[in-house]
Design goal:
The chain has about 325 residues and is an alpha+beta fold. It has helices at about 5-25, 35-50, 90-105, 145-150, 175-185, 195-205, 210-215, 235-245, 260-270, 290-295; strands at about 75, 85, 110-115, 120-125, 130-135, 140-145, 165-170, 220-225, 255, 280-285, 305-310. Bound molecules: 4-aminothieno[3,2-c]pyridine-2,7-dicarboxamide (1X8). 4-aminothieno[3,2-c]pyridine-2,7-dicarboxamide (1X8) binds near residues 82, 83, 84, 115 and 222.
């Protein structure tokens, strides 16, 4: 096989492997057997080894990259990753609703989303290619953990369209993975992690990507930072658009036309919380229309157009 034939075969294999990975990790709907996937991946790696000039960083073969880092590089967030104000009961949710209505002139709809108990991260895509991933850090300055985030199979290395944007989300460790990781740690005489959030944070702060790659981490994306020519005018549109681009969003979000519907949604998830395969520590409620978000603005550290209803700490995952 000559270089141009290899180039064609490599391109075809990359497309196939990216689609398989998207089906399996993002849609949770595998389209081929692991054997088939591994066979194609091995063929791609063999071709990239035979023709190293054809290797590119966005190749599916490059998920678990290189040698350990010496340290994490600091990165500045173009738009701060803020924390959320909290509500702990129904009355405080109604107070939030009153404040929102005082700050807007029209009817307000909300979007409710599960508050994932993991590590907040930012993913940057340029012309559709994943170029940088960072921790939230103090909201202004985070750490570059791109190599570790590339090992999360549900993070696409290339979006379905060549869009330039920065998205925010929560990397997390599924409950089942947390239990088996702690069993392995205890069997090896190592200190177990206290909870899945610490396990996810600990895994993503490893300097060696090979360790993160073994931790079966996952992610839900839920927000936008910088987005050139953003075509949306509501948060719910953004969630739909992120999904169209191949980004993994949480399927349980719901639009609510008033605070009573928000309270019903919150109460329903108090009951359903143990059924989830990942930990949540509450519900995030956001004003849906972006122009109303803009009118409401921010306090020194939180948006006025969102709040987090907090659940009591979940009983330990064992
Ligand atoms: N600190 C924050 O702004 C957020 C934190 C989280 C979280 N841990 N999980 C989900 C969402 C969401 N769906 O918006 C948010 S937003």
């Amino acid at each position: 096989m000559n270089a141009s034939e290899a180039q064609q075969r490599i391109e075809a294999l990359r497309q196939e492997l990216e689609q398989y990975s998207y089906q399996y990790h993002t849609l949770d709907d595998p389209s081929v057997s692991d054997y088939e996937y591994d066979k194609k991946m091995q063929e791609l790696m063999n071709l990239e080894e035979e023709f190293p000039e054809l290797q590119t960083p966005d190749s599916p073969s490059q998920r678990v990259g290189g040698k350990p880092l010496d340290a994490f590089v600091k990165v500045q967030h173009d738009i701060p990753m803020l924390s959320l104000g909290n509500a702990f009961n129904e009355e405080e949710l109604r107070d939030f609703d009153r404040r929102v209505k005082n700050g807007t002139d029209a009817e307000v709809s909300y979007v409710c989303e599960l508050k994932i108990d993991g590590l907040a991260v930012s993913l940057k895509y340029e012309d559709g290619v994943f170029v940088r991933g960072a921790t939230r850090g103090d909201g202004t300055t985070g750490e570059d953990i791109t190599k570790n985030l590339r090992t999360i199979r549900s993070i696409p290395l290339r979006l379905k369209e060549p869009v330039t944007l920065e998205v925010r989300g929560e990397a997390y460790m599924p409950k089942r993975s947390f239990v088996s990781l702690n069993e392995a740690k205890e069997a090896g005489g190592e200190e177990p992690f206290a909870n899945p959030r610490n396990a996810a944070a600990g895994s993503l702060r490893q300097l060696d990507p090979k360790i993160a790659a073994k931790r079966n981490l996952d992610i839900f994306l839920y927000g936008i930072g910088v987005w050139e020519d953003d075509p949306t005018d509501a948060h719910s549109d953004r969630l739909e658009r992120m999904k169209e681009l191949g980004l993994k969003t949480n399927p349980e979000w719901q639009k609510c036309t008033n605070i009573d519907e928000v309270i019903d949604y919150v109460n329903s998830w108090v009951e359903r919380r143990p059924d989830l395969d990942y930990e949540i520590d509450g519900i995030v409620i956001k004003v849906d229309r972006l122009d109303q978000q803009e009118a409401l603005g921010f306090t020194a550290k939180s948006p006025r157009w969102a709040t987090a209803f907090k659940f009591p700490a979940e009983e330990a995952v064992t």
